[in-house]
Amino acid sequence: MGIFRFSGLAIAILLFGLTANSPAANASWDEATKAFAKKQYAAAAKLFKPLAEKGNALAQYQIALMHRMGLGMTKDQKEAKKWSRLAAKQGNADAQLMLGSLYAKAEGGESADVVNAYIWYEASAKEGNAEAKKELVSLEKGMTPQQLTDARAKAQKCVTSKYELCD
To answer: Where are the domains of the chain?
Structure first.
């Protein structure tokens, strides 16, 4: 019976992979990016959202960006954090940079969280994002030695866990 369960799981994974890369999914992505490029943000959001909900890191980043900027949807930093975190945990360096920025430049009554900002800037920098490296240097200048020690330890834990232990 164990073999049948494994086979069923393998088939389910294969089918998911096929549908995730299906022409329909690619067509939705293409339509969404075209709508975004034409500044038809509401239409783009409707097309990106189902892809984001299915776990597409690029679509999650786009939804986060649109929430952060108020493009085609309400400007909502909490939603921007939610969606950028989902993409960041999949290794999307742009989402990691955005998440770091959301922590560093908190808006809407929240206070800045330099330790979490450092963690995500560091993750993005490790993925090769040059802008994140600049943000790290700037952020470090305003941190206390204790904050810096704490942030470095947490960032190391985050990166070595492949973004599982970042919160």
So the answer is: 26-160
Picking from 59, 58, 57, 77, the residue whose alpha carbon sits closest to that of residue 68 is 77
Residue type, 75: K
pTM of the model: 0.82
Give Rg (Cα) of the chain. Answer: 18
pLDDT tens digits, one per residue of 135-149: 999 999 999 999 999
Other CB atoms within 10 Å distance of the CB of residue 93: 20
Using an 8 Å Cβ cutoff, are 97 and 124 in contact?
yes
**Helix, coil or strand: residue 67:** helix
Task: Please determine, for residue 17, whether its predicted confidence score (pLDDT) is greater than 90.
Answer: no
Classify residue 118 as exposed, middle or buried by CB count within 10 Å of its CB (0-12, 13-18, 19+).
buried
Q: Does domain 26-160 have CATH number 3.40.50.720?
A: no
